[in-house]
Amino acid sequence: YLSVEKNASPRTLQNYFHSLTRFRQERGKRFSGWDKTEPDDFRDYLFDSMKGGWARSTIRLHFAALRSFYKFLVRRKNLLCNPLADVQLPKAEKKLPVVLTKTQVEELLTLPLSIEHPKQAPHWIGHRDAAILELFYSSGVRLAELAALNMSDFDFFNECVRVFGKGSKERVCPVGSKAAEAIHAYRNQAKVMDGPLFISKLRKRMSARAISNVFKKYHAASGIPQNLSPHKLRHSFATHLLDNGADLRSVQTLLGHSSLSTTQIYTHVSIERMKEVYKKSHPRA
C-alpha cells in the first residue's frame, strides 16, 4: 500500500517497518494482535519511550507510522475503531536549526584541496570530496538525494541537476558555478563519465554513510566548534538564501518541501540573525 499507492520512499518504508516491529517487540507477550490493542497499550508504550530517553522527534516518527497503519486497517481491513485516535503525543520541540556562517562554509569547502590525503587514496579523492561539499552547499540537497545522483541527472550546459526527493518527487536544482567547476574537475580527474556521480576508491557508488563520513572528516579538520552533520549545509543553504533576499516560496521549491511551514523555520533563523546585528550595531539596542 505505502510502496505502490502512496509512492513512499524506501527510507520511509524502512522507518515504518522498524516502528511497527519495535512496538510488537516492546509489548512482547502482552501483544495479542493489532485488532486487540487498546489505547492504554499505546499510552504505556509512549510512557516507556519517554522514560527511556527517546527524543520527541523519534517518538512522533514512531507514532506517525503506527497511526498511518491503523488508518489503513480502518479504511481497508474494516477495523471498527482506531485506538490511537485518543492518544495525545508530546508536542514537537521547536529548535532552531544550526547554521554555519559564510566564513565557516568557506573554510570547510576549501579543505579537501588544501590538506594532505593518505598515500593509498586515489589521486582524485580531494577533487571528489571538494565536489561533494560544494554540491551540498550549492544545491541544498539531502544526503540521500546526493548519494543517489547519477551523471545523467546533470545538465552541465544549464548548470542544474535533477533530484528525486522524498516520495520520489522530482525537482530541478540549480548548481552554482563553483560547484559546477568542482564537479568538472572531479570528473576529469576520476574519469567518471556515466553511472553513479560519486564513487568510492573501488569505483562503486558511495553510500549515504560514506558521504556522511567524508563530511565528518573535514569537519574534524576544520576549526568549526559546532556539532555538525551534512544536513547543516542544507540549513545553511536555505538561511543564506533568505538572508540575501530570496523569497520563501522559491526556497521551498529548492529544498523540495511539500509544506511551506517546514521552510518557515529558516525565517526564524534569519530574524534571530537580524536581531544580533541590531544589538551589535544600534546605539540604543
Task: Give an overview of the whole structure.
- It is a single chain.
- With 285 residues, the chain is mainly alpha-helical.
- The chain folds into two domains: 10-76, no CATH class; 102-278, Orthogonal Bundle (hpI Integrase, Chain A).
- The chain has helices spanning 10-27, 39-51, 56-76, 102-110, 125-139, 143-147, 177-190, 208-221, 231-243, 248-255, 260-263, 265-281; strands at residues 154-155, 160-164, 170-174.
- The chain has a three-stranded antiparallel beta sheet.
- A hairpin with a 5-residue loop joins strand 2 (160-164) and strand 3 (170-174).
Which helices and strands occur, and which strands form pairs?
Elements: H1 10-27, H2 39-51, H3 56-76, H4 102-110, H5 125-139, H6 143-147, E1 154-155, E2 160-164, E3 170-174, H7 177-190, H8 208-221, H9 231-243, H10 248-255, H11 260-263, H12 265-281
Antiparallel strand pairs: 1-2, 2-3
Helix pairs in contact: 1-3, 4-5, 5-7, 5-9, 9-12
List keywords for this structure.
2 domains, hpI Integrase, Chain A, 285 residues, single chain
Q: Short description, anyone?
A:
The protein has helices at residues 10-27, 39-51, 56-76, 102-110, 125-139, 143-147, 177-190, 208-221, 231-243, 248-255, 260-263, 265-281; strands at 154-155, 160-164, 170-174. By secondary structure, the chain is mostly helical. The chain has a 3-stranded antiparallel sheet with strand order 1-2-3.
Class by alpha and beta content: mainly alpha
Question: CATH H level of the largest domain: which superfamily?
Answer: Intergrase catalytic core
Uncertain runs with pLDDT below 50, 5 residues or more? none
Distance between the termini: 57 Å
Percentage of residues in helical conformation = 40-55%
**CATH first level of the largest domain: which class?**
Mainly Alpha
**Secondary structure tally, helices:** 12
Strand content: under 5%
State Rg: 22 Å
Largest beta sheet: strand ordering? 1-2-3
CATH architecture classification of the largest domain? Orthogonal Bundle
The count of DSSP E runs of length 2 or more, i.e. the number of strands, is 3
Net shape:
globular
Query: Per CATH, what is the topology of the largest domain?
Result: hpI Integrase, Chain A
Count of spatially separate domains: 2
What can be said about the biggest beta sheet? 3 strands, antiparallel
Order of helices and strands: HHHHHHEEEHHHHHH
